[in-house]
């Protein structure tokens, strides 16, 4: 493995692009060499971090030849940006969703797998210690056979948030922007989702796009689940604030995910594990609560460290392009189910 500093470039100098720049600047062994974004503000971001500024990302790739690229562009530009990296043999980390449509995602996946160039999708929650530990506990059988899952994402977005017209239109709502993270976590922890049934509502704001939804899930394992989501409800019940891992929100300790099995139940992100005191415990006996200790690491920091290993060939992407496509397919199945009022299988899309 080469010992030299890895040279990174970023496509997109907006809010999340700047956060990636700050993470690279704070990481030993990583150097930000360039940012590509035609917006005037991006030139200031590049200057702040001592990186070259480009208007066109293809020119940046050809001239700078970075070791790895982070793509933080609008969703509709993800696929073509990833393919530009693949064509040049450069590993990339692309923010979620992997693409804006399944057709674009399929083209991207085919290109990545044909060229054997790694693509890491930025579902950063998978790198959070509570999510990783939950997956481990379930896989090791500490909960027994997984029976049911409940998840919540409830928050109250302020009215100015919707000044951008696309956030009031189809495709700009909390299903594709927010719930996609929770669906990815549930797929990661519990396995693939075979079928969904959703009810959506826009009754609070009356926009074209949904503001609330309830979703029933059937996992391939046979487990079932429910998800409640709204961006119009005052609530501490969302992973972003409950886990303390979000970049822009205060930490408000609560739980957002609940997993129940034949031997035990687990709440996240508190990591409280509930079970009988003995294997012969009766349902009328008090349960025993044990706290599962985590390492306190940060999801975005862990994601960058993992991407560096992907770049050097020392790790496979935790969220591959194909994996990211399946999460996108599941969310689009939920969107279709809510629109058509019927169960939908993600694999049928």
UniProtKB/TrEMBL annotation:
Residues 132-263 form the GFO/IDH/MocA-like oxidoreductase domain. It holds the Pfam family GFO_IDH_MocA_C3. Gene3D superfamilies: Dihydrodipicolinate Reductase, domain 2, NAD(P)-binding Rossmann-like Domain. Residues 6-123 form the Gfo/Idh/MocA-like oxidoreductase N-terminal domain. GO terms for molecular function: nucleotide binding. It comes from the Bacteria. InterPro entries: Gfo/Idh/MocA-like_OxRdtase_N, Gfo/Idh/MocA_Oxidoreductases, GFO_IDH_MocA-like_dom, NAD(P)-bd_dom_sf. This is Putative dehydrogenase. It comes from Rhizobium wenxiniae.
